[in-house]
C-alpha cells in the first residue's frame, strides 16, 4: 500500500437531495473562508514582526552610527555618579573635620572659663583672709596678678580668632596661630 495514496471517495448507496448538496457546498465555502482568514492573519503577523524587527535594527544602527552608544553613555553616567559620590564624601569629611575643630575650640573655651572661675574664687578667698592680716596694697597686687593671669588665659582662648588680650598691651605678646584649612579639588 502506498502511504501517500488517498482513499477512494466514499460512495453512498443513496443519492443526496438538492438541499443536502446545497448544505455541503455552503460548508465548503465556509471552510475555504476560514482557511483564507487564517492565512491572512498569519501573513499579517509575519509582516508586522518583520517590520518591527527592521525598525528596531534600523534605530539601533542609526544610534550607533551617529555616536550615541547606549553602553558608553551608561558607563559615563556611572563614572559621573561615582565622581559625585566622591565629591560628596570629601565634602562630608571636610564638614566633620570642621565640626571636630569647633568642638575642640569650644572645649578649650570652657576649660579657660573654668580656670578663670577657679582663679577668681582663690582671689576672693585670699582677699577675705588677707584683709585682716595684710595691707590693702598687697591685696591689690594679688588682684592685679590674677587679672593678668586671667587676661593671658583669655588671650589663649581667643587667640585662635586672632584677637589680642589686655596683657599684650602691657608688653606681653600672645602669638597663636590660627588653624588654616585648605581644600584641594
Portion in beta strands: under 5%
Biggest sheet descriptor:
none
Q: Report the uncertain regions.
A: 147-173
Oligomeric grouping of the chains: single chain
How far apart are the first and last residues' alpha carbons, in Å? Answer: 92 Å
Shape: rod-shaped
| Secondary structure category | mainly alpha
Radius of gyration: 51 Å
Share of helical residues: over 70%
Order of helices and strands: HHHH
Count of runs of 4 or more consecutive helical residues: 4
How many E strands? 0
Mean pLDDT reading: 75
Produce the secondary structure layout.
Blueprint: H1 18-65, H2 70-133, H3 136-158, H4 166-169
Question: How would you characterize this protein structure?
Answer:
The chain has 185 residues and is an all-alpha fold. Among the domains are: 21-66; 106-158. The protein contains four helices and no strands. It has helices spanning 18-65, 70-133, 136-158, 166-169. Helix 2 (70-133) packs antiparallel against helix 3 (136-158). Mean pLDDT is 75; it is low at 147-173.
Q: In short, what is this structure?
A:
The chain has helices spanning 18-65, 70-133, 136-158, 166-169.
Could you list some keywords that capture this structure?
185 residues; 0% strand; mainly alpha
Amino acid at each position: 500500500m502506498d502511504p501517500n495514496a488517498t482513499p477512494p471517495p466514499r460512495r453512498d448507496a443513496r443519492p443526496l437531495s438538492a438541499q443536502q448538496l446545497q448544505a455541503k457546498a455552503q460548508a465548503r465555502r465556509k471552510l475555504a473562508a476560514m482557511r483564507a482568514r487564517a492565512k491572512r492573519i498569519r501573513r499579517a503577523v509575519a509582516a508586522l514582526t518583520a517590520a518591527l524587527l527592521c525598525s528596531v535594527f534600523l534605530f539601533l544602527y542609526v544610534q550607533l552610527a551617529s555616536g550615541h552608544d547606549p553602553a558608553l553613555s551608561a558607563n559615563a553616567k556611572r563614572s559621573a555618579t561615582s565622581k559625585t559620590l566622591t565629591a560628596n564624601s570629601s565634602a562630608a569629611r571636610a564638614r566633620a573635620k570642621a565640626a571636630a575643630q569647633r568642638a575642640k575650640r569650644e572645649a578649650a573655651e570652657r576649660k579657660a572659663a573654668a580656670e578663670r572661675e577657679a582663679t577668681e574664687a582663690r582671689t576672693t578667698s585670699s582677699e577675705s583672709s588677707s584683709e585682716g592680716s595684710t595691707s590693702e596694697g598687697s591685696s591689690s597686687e594679688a588682684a592685679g596678678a590674677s587679672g593678668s593671669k586671667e587676661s593671658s588665659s583669655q588671650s589663649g582662648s581667643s587667640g585662635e580668632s586672632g584677637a589680642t588680650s589686655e596683657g599684650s598691651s602691657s608688653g606681653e605678646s600672645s602669638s597663636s596661630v590660627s588653624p588654616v584649612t585648605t581644600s584641594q579639588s
